[in-house]
Write the structure tokens for this entry.
Amino acid sequence: MSVDSDGTEDAGWDVDPEDEQGLAVLAALGRQLRAWREEAGMRAADFGTALGYGEDLVRKIEGGKRIPRPEYLDKADEVLRAGGKIAAMKADMEQVRYPTKVRAQAQRERMAVEIGVYRIHGIHGLLQTEDYARALFEMRQPAYTQDEVERYVAARMARHTVFEREPAPSLSIVQEEVTLRRPIGGTMVWRRQLERLLEVSRLRHVALQVMPINREVHAGMDGGIEVLKFGDGKAVGRSEGAFGGRPVSDPRQLRILELRYGMIRAQALTPLETRGFIEELLGET
């Protein structure tokens, strides 16, 4: 966690300057917080002291230049005796704090009734543990700031609500064997990630498969694939090796991605064989 200009612990995240929707939400929140504070007859400095933060942070948040953390809003609600009205703003902040492209992906996953994915590098985000995700973001180059790392990790973990949906979406994921063998984050992080994969693989609506490295014929050599289908019959797909890597919704283009993905699934280990493979890996760690 960073600190603000007067040396106190910071309770906020950086704002994405290209997120117009997020900036508008933050500006509205900032105006409301300032109105609550002024109605209570508190100066920004006194308000910051009461919250345990500096005046600089208070002014940044009220000016829509900093995303407040949930604990900041909880404390503000208590100090200003807002009766839960300020704390209720946390739901909006949970969305704004995530990068725009991550929010868009999470929205598609929340709406999908079927999700099919083939991954070449790293475990798919919906399957990652928090420690594994953090290790991935911390090794990115150019390096993310710690604030960026935490934002991306929080956003990735928030996507896991897809498993809590009723009815749950049909989820099919094919992972390259090497993604399970690479000890990202060290032995313990890697082991917990394998345990998480085993846990998810037992869910009735999930089909997890591994593509062995010894396959002589492999339909996924052109890159990863993702296809999401929705309740209204529409779908969107993307592959690094097709259509310039752009998302596509044209039925003819989607059929190409679905054909490739179907062949990949047929060439991979079955879900039952995959569970046995993961159990063997766990026995080796």
Q: What stands out?
A: The beta strands are 12-13, 67-68, 112-119, 170-176, 206-211, 225-230, 235-239. The chain has a mean pLDDT of 90. The chain has twelve helices and seven strands. The CA atoms of residues 95 and 103 lie 7 Å apart.
